[in-house]
Amino acid sequence: MTAIRRSERKPCAVADDHPLDATGDLALALGGSPDSWTGKVLKLLAESDDEHVARLAAGIPELVRAYRLWRSTERTPTAGEFLTLLDAALAEDRCGSCGQFRTDGRAHVHIQASDSPPPAPINPALIAEAYEAGRRPGGMR
Question: How many Å separate Cα 124 from the centre of its chain?
Answer without folding.
Answer: 41
